[in-house]
Amino acid sequence: MSAVAFERVTLGYGGRRVLADVSFSIPQGAFVGLLGANGAGKTTMLRAILGLVGPASGAISVLGRPPTRGNPTIGYMPQARRALPHPGISGIDFVLTAAGGHRWGWPVATAAEKEAAWKALEEVGAADLARRPLAELSGGERQRILIAQALIGDPKLLLLDEPLISLDAAHQRVIIDLVHEVAERLGIAVLFCSHEINPLMRAVDRVLYLGNGKAAIGSVDEVINGPVLSRLYGTPITVMRVAGRIFVMADDIELEGAAHVHDV
Ligand SMILES: Nc1ncnc2c1ncn2[C@@H]1O[C@H](COP(=O)(O)OP(=O)(O)OP(=O)(O)O)[C@@H](O)[C@H]1O
Predict the structure, then answer these.
(1) Closest residue (by CA) to atom 6 of ligand 1?
(2) Is the Cβ atom of 38 under 6 angstroms away from ligand 1?
(3) What is the largest CA-CA distance in the chain?
(4) 208 touches ligand 1 (CB under 6 Å)
(5) Whose CA is nearest to atom 24 of ligand 1?
(6) How much is the pTM?
(7) Residue nearest to atom 1 of ligand 1 (CA)
(8) 61 Cβ inside 6 Å of ligand 1
(9) DSSP label at 133?
(10) Closest-lying ligand 1 atom to the alpha carbon of residue 45
(11) Which residues in 93-188 belong to E strands, given as ranges?
(12) Tens-level pLDDT at each residue, the chain (264 residues)
């Protein structure tokens, strides 16, 4: 049984297609980098796995079952710009919202919910940060709290939407190593959405690259090369490796990294 399987899946909004006839599968416990240009459909794919966007055609399976909303086997970390309810909330109260310990806006967690929240915070080494307001934390510290929230309920699949956004290279490395270590220890498959392959190279088993409505999956070498990316971008792409880093270029413009902009 795969962690995630897409069989000839088409996704879109209204009549507008985002992905067309896409098939792939992700084994349990695999660490997969989900890449693609702005608007390629990364978030839409995560939303489909969460059961929030239904396929126009084809079949999606998540740990052997069709997607359902509120699936407890999935931990989801939305993009930070969409994630925070209000800045004054403390880390522990934020994590408790995922444990079900907030009702009508009040923290009325049961002992079991509190225990689950502190356990998740400890998994990511964030228990010391948890009583501080999220607004006071650095970007890297806040990402730890968001990852802790995604770990509530002992998921078997983690969907992380751009956890590296607005982090410097050193903090990116810390977050990737943390997710890698926790996922390996707990046997969790990870779909790690990023706009750049380089920071992920130390952790990924596979890359799932989206573009032009299509997807390619495989090792870094199998996917991040001129022929495959030219197909996904619909334009001639050159892939260069310099000092262990990969540069994806169309004409003289670097496509990954600098070209990928978010309104953070
Ligand atoms: N709720 C929606 N209704 C209509 N169109 C949408 C909706 N959400 C996303 N889209 C469109 O679907 C396409 C894919 O968007 P999506 O957010 O999945 O891309 P992405 O790869 O995650 O992009 P980014 O890297 O910018 O976050 C885009 O063209 C976007 O405008």
Answers:
(1) 13
(2) yes
(3) 58
(4) no
(5) 38
(6) 0.90
(7) 13
(8) no
(9) B
(10) 18
(11) 102-103, 106-107, 157-161
(12) 999 999 999 999 988 999 999 999 999 999 999 999 889 999 999 999 999 999 999 999 999 999 999 888 999 998 876 656 676 889 898 888 877 655 455 556 788 888 989 999 999 999 999 999 988 998 889 889 999 999 988 899 999 999 998 788 888 999 999 999 999 999 999 999 998 899 999 899 999 999 999 999 999 999 999 999 999 999 999 999 988 899 998 877 777 654 454 543
For ligand 1, say whether the CB of 264 is within 6 Å of any of its atoms: no
DSSP structure class, residue 65: B
* CB of 194 sitting under 6 A from ligand 1: no
Contact predicate 179/157, CB 8 Å: no
The CB of 78 under 6 Å from ligand 1? The reply is no
Q: Yes or no: say if 221 and 51 are a contact pair by the CB < 8 Å rule.
A: no
Q: What is the ipTM of this complex?
A: 0.97
Q: Indicate which residue's Cα is closest to atom 8 of ligand 1.
A: 44
CB of residue 13 inside a 6 A radius of ligand 1: yes
How many residues are given for the chain? Answer: 264
Structure tokens at 94: 């934020």
102-103 and 106-107 strand pairing: antiparallel
